[in-house]
Amino acid sequence: MVARTTTSLWDRFAAFDPGLMRLTSAMRAVLGTAATLAALTALRAPETALVVGGFTAMTTSLAVSDLRPRNQLITLGLGVPLSLASLSAGAALTPYPTAAELVFLVVIHLAVQARRFGPRGLGLGIFGFMAFLLSQFTQARADRLPQLGASVLVAFVAVTAVWYCFGPVTASEALRRLRHSFDVRLHDVLRDTAAMVATGQDIDTRSRSLQDRLDTLHASVLLIEDFLDERAADADTEALLPHLCRVEVAAQRLAVLAVRAMRTPAARNDPAERTARQRLAQRIRALRHQPTVGTACAAERCAEG
User: Fold this and answer.
1) Staple partner for 111: which of 77, 129, 180, 243, CB 3.0–4.6 Å?
2) How many CB atoms within 10 Å of residue 238?
3) How would DSSP label each residue in 54-84?
4) Total domains, the chain
5) For residue 128, which of 146, 110, 115 has the smallest C-alpha distance?
């Protein structure tokens, strides 16, 4: 009983955060920043270095969006010299505010243009932008560069250690989590539909709740679509999204037909109709225990890709 309750609560939490992507990203950012600040405090770094190191750790944790561990390492490796170069340029221009503002506009333009090169370009653009911004925010000067550069290095090392101790989220793992979230939301739709069919009461309240369930189910499909759009899909992964869309449409049609049937007077008062509703509710509940077939190969191919 306790295990089932715990599982149910966890599934509901996962439904609010499809794939637990937000939770994973937030935990990495918090742990990476905490590890960086702890290391810099132990090294008796000044407050400016703490600010630069903390913001660099947080930015690094959130900027790398590639789902392949090898590509993540490459992006982090390229981000170190880029951040140091941008920080040095900002520190050199601190005594010249007008020139610093003009260069900052150029940095913003380059960071935006870098998004065209995919997740790595996006991450590197963020690294360059944030490093220059930190140099201006802290009014860094050339004589402080050794301390600030060391804090940047500590931040990258701490974030990398946290990432790989925490476990990198691979493409197959992210897809598996998103699929699980879809299944949880689909089960919620079927459960509410079965409950409405079985009771035949509070149709307006239950239909509004059911509509909310359908909206969250559609949101999970959109998240999977966005995830697959960022990857080079083969035949199997291309078949995944249409399959999930068909399942979603079937769930919507079932819910709409159930609402319409429950609003007819005969469905409320006829004993034969009540018996039929109970049987239909049992069949709908049985659907909750059937897997959403046809997507296992897609997950495996996504892992290989």
Assistant:
1) 129
2) 12
3) HHHHHHHHHH---SSHHHHHHHHHHHHHHHH
4) 2
5) 110
pLDDT band at 298 (very low <50, low <70, confident <90, very high): very low
Pick from 93, 82, 97: nearest CA to 129: 82
Name residue 289's amino acid. Answer: H
Find the angle CA(81)-CA(84)-CA(88) to the nearest 5 degrees.
Answer: 140
For 258-291, the pLDDT digits (tens) are 888 777 765 556 677 777 777 878 888 787 666 5
- Which tokens is 47 given? 């407050």
8-state DSSP, 241: H
Same-domain check for residues 160 and 293 = no
- State how far the Cα of 11 lies from the Cα of 165, in Å rounded to an integer: 25
Q: Are residues 137 and 257 in the same domain?
A: no
Q: Which amino acid, residue 274? A: R
How many residues does the structure list for the chain?
305
Through-space distance between the first and last CA atoms of the chain, rounded to whole angstroms: 40
Instruction: Find the domain containing 264 and state its range.
Output: 171-304
Query: Are residues 27 and 61 part of one domain?
Result: yes
Out of 166, 188, 217, a domain closes at 166
Which of 3-7, 29-33, 110-114, 133-137 is predicted with the least confidence, judged by mean pLDDT? 3-7
> Which residues are CB-contacts of 19 (< 8 A; sequence separation ≥ 6)?
174, 177, 178, 180, 181, 223
Distance separating alpha carbons of residues 46 and 160, to the nearest angstrom: 23
The span from the CA of 145 to the CA of 133, in Å, is 15
Residue 116 DSSP symbol = G
> What is the number of alpha carbons within 13 Å of residue 145 lying toward its C-beta?
16
Percent helix, strand and coil across the chain, each rounded to 5? 85, 0, 15
Q: What is the DSSP string of 169-186?
A: --HHHHHHHHHHHHHHHH
